[in-house]
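Narrative of accomplishments. A recurring question from our advisory board has been how the design workflow behaves on a single, concrete structure rather than in aggregate. To address it, we present the structure tokens for one chain from the evaluation set, followed by the sequence designed for it. No filtering or post-editing was applied between the two.
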């Protein structure tokens, strides 16, 4: 979905927060005729739209796969169908299980830092650090052989780039469907300790939990969803820490990494809005009635700055506790990969503070993500000054 007219300028994409404030105060629920949807801005309303699946249904309202190229996806289903799909892999994404991956992810991060810094101190944080780390991590988690990592990453880039048209998306889906179909066949015969093996071997009462086409779609979805938002979240963290002067306190151990990353997710979350909901019946939010069958856009970025919920919401408070942000959504569709994103953020911040005395954002062309739903950079030049 295209951005609202109010966010079409680049400066508004990077600073939508004054507009959010105006909308919360004057039009917390408004119909946008040009986009044929209802925008929702206040925390309580957004939280309800994300969690009350009987009133705000996900079925037939996809914002992840609007053309239906991937088939059945958990993000586009209500319970109990959603629970059937999610239950196949949910245990795998529990924080305790993912923690076992810490040494493996740290080795990926250290390798990317070595490569990025071998030619000097200037680094594109997105292209040379956060994007490669998140792509390689989800590839390893799924069980994609290392020889194929670059190939799968290229398909993903062609499918998710801002200029990707329908033909490019269809071509990418076809290639990834075929690729993951072959891997799934291999894992059924020779299972390993990876996520593709879990998906390939999923059964209930001696019957496959997922059909072969659902298994392929699940693998494609997990790969695509498993890296892009985390890429921008960690980039936003390094940018914000430098901008606010809090990097030194984090480096010196005065701040808790997990608390800092949680505040980044609230303050500059990588997902600003979710549009994958439709009203199953007429409903009232903040005194405004929305008819049945209407598309809803939930502005998470606005909800996370709502002063009725957060003290000093426009201030970055790296030790904010409690932090009731909904950067990962809320309710049944709470992001499956949230524990993985938090683990990756923690590991990258740990590795950078271990090796870098100070950092600075370079003067020059950073490249904001050109989507109102996302927030962050596709390119972020910084200078890393290593410890002496």
């Amino acid at each position: 979905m295209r951005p609202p007219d109010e966010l079409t300028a680049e400066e508004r994409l990077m600073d939508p927060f004054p507009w959010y404030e105006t909308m919360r105060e004057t039009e917390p629920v408004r119909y946008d005729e040009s986009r044929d949807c209802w925008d929702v801005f206040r925390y309580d309303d957004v939280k309800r739209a994300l969690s009350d699946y009987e009133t705000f249904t996900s079925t037939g309202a996809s914002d992840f796969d609007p053309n239906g190229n991937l088939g059945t996806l958990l993000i586009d289903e209500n319970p109990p169908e959603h629970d059937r799909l999610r239950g196949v892999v949910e245990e795998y994404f529990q924080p305790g299980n993912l923690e076992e991956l810490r040494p493996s992810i740290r080795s990926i991060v250290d390798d990317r830092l070595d490569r990025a810094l071998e030619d000097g101190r200037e680094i594109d944080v997105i292209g040379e650090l956060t994007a490669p780390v998140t792509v390689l991590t989800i590839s390893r988690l799924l069980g994609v052989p290392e020889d194929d990592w670059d190939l799968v990453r290229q398909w993903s880039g062609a499918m998710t780039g801002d200029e990707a048209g329908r033909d490019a998306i269809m071509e990418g889906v076809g290639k990834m469907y075929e690729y993951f179909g072959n891997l799934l066949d291999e894992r059924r015969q020779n299972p390993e300790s990876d996520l593709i093996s879990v998906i390939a071997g999923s059964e209930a009462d001696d019957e496959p939990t997922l059909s072969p086409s659902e298994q392929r779609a699940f693998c494609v979805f997990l790969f695509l969803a498993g890296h892009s938002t985390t890429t921008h979240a960690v980039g936003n963290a390094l940018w914000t820490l430098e901008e606010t002067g809090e990097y030194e306190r984090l480096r010196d151990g005065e701040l808790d990494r997990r608390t800092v990353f949680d505040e980044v997710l609230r303050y500059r979350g990588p997902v600003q809005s979710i549009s994958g909901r439709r009203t199953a019946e007429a409903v009232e939010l903040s005194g405004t009635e929305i008819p049945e069958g209407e598309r809803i856009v939930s502005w998470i970025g606005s909800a996370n700055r709502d002063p009725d919920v957060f003290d000093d919401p426009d201030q970055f408070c790296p030790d904010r506790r409690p932090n009731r942000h909904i950067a990962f959504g809320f309710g049944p569709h709470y992001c499956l990969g949230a524990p993985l994103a938090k683990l990756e953020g923690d590991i990258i911040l740990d590795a950078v503070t271990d090796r870098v005395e100070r950092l600075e954002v370079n003067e020059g062309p950073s490249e904001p993500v050109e989507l109102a739903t996302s927030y962050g950079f596709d390119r972020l030049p910084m200078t890393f000054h290593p410890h002496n």
